[in-house]
Design brief:
5 strands, five-stranded mixed β-sheet, alpha/beta, 131 residues
């Protein structure tokens, strides 16, 4: 999954660094168009042992990738309107090893590094009628 997603990022002329924040399979991409603020989209892409991608991490990765590519295109098209830094941060090792906690300890979410972040998580049932 890491290789596939990072190849897509490179095809869109976005930088990518693999092995960030003390997790070998974590990666990060940046699009810098100003110093502040810095926003990130997070993604998971783990599979569960003996089950596979049953909890939708592939969907979460694709959703995050689509959002990052769309925002990157918007920033590139309107560079004077969107002064910010966008990040796309892969947060693997969630299933059974608390990857985000490890990455947080490695500095991934420090306030001086990141102003805000967002991610989506899939669910086994429709929550839209619960609002």
């Amino acid at each position: 999954m890491v290789k596939h997603i990072t190849e897509i990022l490179k095809k869109h002329d976005l930088d990518v660094e693999v092995g960030v924040h003390v997790v070998d399979t974590a990666f990060e991409s940046h699009l810098v168009n100003g110093d502040d603020p810095t926003f990130a989209i997070l993604l998971d892409y783990d599979a569960l042992p003996e089950i596979g991608h049953s909890c939708g991490h592939r969907v979460m990765a694709a959703t995050g990738l689509s959002a990052y590519l769309a925002l990157a295109a918007l920033v590139r098209k309107n560079p004077y309107s969107f002064k910010c830094t966008l990040k796309y941060i892969a947060t693997p090792a969630e299933e059974g090893s608390s990857g985000k906690e490890v990455m947080a300890r490695g500095g991934a979410f420090k306030p001086e590094y990141l102003d805000a972040c967002i991610m989506v998580h899939s669910c086994g049932y429709d929550l839209t009628d619960q609002v």
